[in-house]
Amino acid sequence: MPQIIILPHAELCPQGQVFEAPAGQTILDAAKENGIDIEHACEKSCACTTCHVIVREGFDSMIESDELEDDMLDKAWGLEPDSRLSCQAVIAEDNLVVEIPKYTINIVSEAH
Fold first, then answer.
1. 106 Cβ contact partners less than 8 Å away, ≥ 6 residues apart
2. Each residue of 23-61: pLDDT tens digit?
3. What's the pLDDT score for residue 104?
């Protein structure tokens, strides 16, 4: 099973976290199953950018993003070439190193 390394995030996982996740699962679902509550305001329907992550290692191993995801990513804060929406990014066989950006574009957040 691939290893997922979540880099430290001040609010969601201050120490960072390492866990295994099955290929075929999204980064968001794997993170949530391991206690990392990545925001996802649209309930994983690819209609917002609150679950934006940056895949620092292993990006090319995942299935490419589709046009809808790319259009949504254009609206994400801190967009980088290796950005993905974690609700759409499916884990393949390679290990991943994932960074959760410090900010999201969310006008209303239930967590605050």
1. 39, 41, 48, 50
2. 999 999 999 999 999 999 999 999 999 999 999 999 999
3. 76
Q: What are 7's two structure tokens?
A: 């880099």
Q: Is 103 left (phi over 0), alpha (psi -120 to 50) or beta?
A: beta
Residues 6+ apart with CB under 8 A from 2: 20, 21, 22, 23, 58, 91, 92, 93, 94, 95, 96
Burial string for 58-86 (b: 16+ CB within 10 Å, else e) reads: bbeebeebeeebeebbeebeeeeebbbbb
Res. 103 pLDDT band, cuts 50 70 90: confident
The amino acid sitting at 106 is N
CA distance 32 to 39: 10
